[in-house]
């Protein structure tokens, strides 16, 4: 009978590692000497994921995500946000399928309840941030990093602030119509978040 | 040719008659056939061939054949990465999810057999199942689960933890 340690190294690097989340991959090296000595294989896997990420997301060479983060941080952040998004999608679909969804009494299921709540700026002890691209009519208006929240006040959300900012007619901008207050949404949003570009 | 039979012989010498199409899912078996064909072009293609598998025990080989047989009726959907779920049932069809719900030793034997016999979809499935065992476990939990002794020096532990700080 084989054990986990008996499996050949190339099976880990070529197959098993490809399915293991970044967080667990990083932890691998702390388990035992065999895995400790395989850290270079873990590193290669992370670099391969980073390359695939850049290609699949079509990040331009000047994209801030390529300069602010290193490859480990990039794949970790992407995975964390991706997991978040998948779970939101799953719960939203579940919510839509709820039998009482369209009744006047309202839906009894509670979507998004299982998401880790903000506490001291972290969710479940982890720092989330989001690489955001605002586009309208296929034109990139703004891109950058948004904090999930400020540590000193958990109820602050840059996205909520964006929608509340009277200088930014974001609905018009998203409809692709001209912004009649004379300010470009790019300038407004960039100004708003210039101090918030996040260092993870 | 469709009805041709291949005899797969396990480590213990037990022989399993398998339809050629099923056996050919293994690249090892396929390569064995093409090597034989190269050596003897005049050979009768309906002849029953035997392929020894000295690294695969009979119970494991039986499971491998079960997988390859089912695959002929319901092809396994390729596993998409990054994974969108942490549960097998949401990543592969129900039959395949149930197929790898076996004890850990059998699972590792299946990984090794799929690797030795070079059966890509089975290797993907079994490695996915191993990765799901690993997912979300602390180093201590992994040691307990897989009966691994902690043999890292405090310096090595500290080094690994420092390198991994960004992910925790």
Automatic annotation (TrEMBL), chain A:
It comes from Fistulifera solaris. This is F-box domain-containing protein. Residues 4-37 form the F-box domain. InterPro entries: F-box-like_dom_sf, F-box_dom.
Automatic annotation (TrEMBL), chain B:
Pathway: Protein modification; protein ubiquitination. One of its GO terms (biological process) is protein ubiquitination. It comes from the Eukaryota. It comes from Fistulifera solaris (Oleaginous diatom). The keyword Ribosomal protein does not apply. Belongs to the SKP1 family. SUPFAM superfamilies: POZ domain (SSF54695), Skp1 dimerisation domain-like (SSF81382). Keywords: Ubl conjugation pathway. InterPro entries: SKP1, SKP1-like, SKP1-like_dim_sf, SKP1/BTB/POZ_sf, Skp1_comp_dimer, Skp1_comp_POZ. Residues 5-72 form the SKP1 component POZ domain. Residues 120-167 form the SKP1 component dimerisation domain. PANTHER family: SKP1. This is S-phase kinase-associated protein 1.
């Amino acid at each position: 009978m084989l054990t986990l340690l008996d499996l050949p190294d190339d099976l880990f690097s070529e197959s098993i590692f490809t399915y293991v989340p970044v967080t667990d991959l990083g932890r691998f090296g702390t388990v035992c000497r065999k895995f400790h000595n395989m850290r270079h294989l873990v590193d290669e896997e992370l670099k391969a994921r980073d390359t695939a990420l850049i290609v699949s997301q079509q990040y331009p060479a000047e994209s801030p995500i390529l300069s602010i983060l290193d490859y480990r941080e990039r794949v970790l952040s992407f995975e964390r946000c991706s997991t978040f998004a998948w779970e939101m999608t799953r719960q939203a679909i579940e919510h839509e399928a709820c039998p009482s969804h369209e009744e006047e009494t309202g839906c009894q299921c509670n979507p998004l309840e299982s998401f880790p709540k903000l506490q001291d700026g972290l969710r479940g002890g982890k720092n989330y941030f989001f690489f955001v691209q605002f586009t309208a009519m296929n034109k990139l208006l703004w891109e950058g990093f948004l904090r999930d929240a400020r540590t000193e006040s958990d109820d602050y959300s840059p996205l909520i602030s964006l929608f509340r900012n009277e200088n930014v007619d974001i609905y018009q901008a998203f409809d692709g119509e001209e912004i009649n207050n004379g300010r470009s949404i790019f300038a407004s949003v960039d100004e708003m978040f210039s101090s918030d570009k996040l260092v993870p | 040719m469709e009805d041709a039979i291949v005899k797969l012989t396990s480590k213990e010498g037990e022989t399993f008659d398998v339809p050629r199409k099923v056996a050919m899912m293994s690249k090892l078996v396929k390569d064995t056939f093409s090597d034989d064909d190269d050596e003897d072009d005049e050979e009768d293609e309906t002849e029953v061939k035997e392929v020894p598998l000295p690294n695969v025990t009979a119970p494991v080989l039986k499971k491998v054949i079960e997988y390859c047989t089912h695959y002929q009726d319901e092809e396994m959907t390729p596993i998409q990465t990054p994974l969108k779920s942490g549960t097998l049932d949401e990543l592969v069809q129900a039959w395949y999810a149930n197929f790898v719900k076996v004890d850990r030793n059998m699972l590792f034997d299946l990984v090794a057999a799929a690797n030795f016999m070079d059966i890509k979809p089975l290797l993907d499935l079994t490695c996915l199942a191993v990765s799901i065992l690993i997912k979300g476990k602390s180093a201590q939990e992994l040691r307990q689960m897989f009966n691994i002794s902690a043999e890292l020096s405090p310096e090595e532990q500290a080094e690994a933890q420092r390198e991994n700080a960004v992910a925790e």
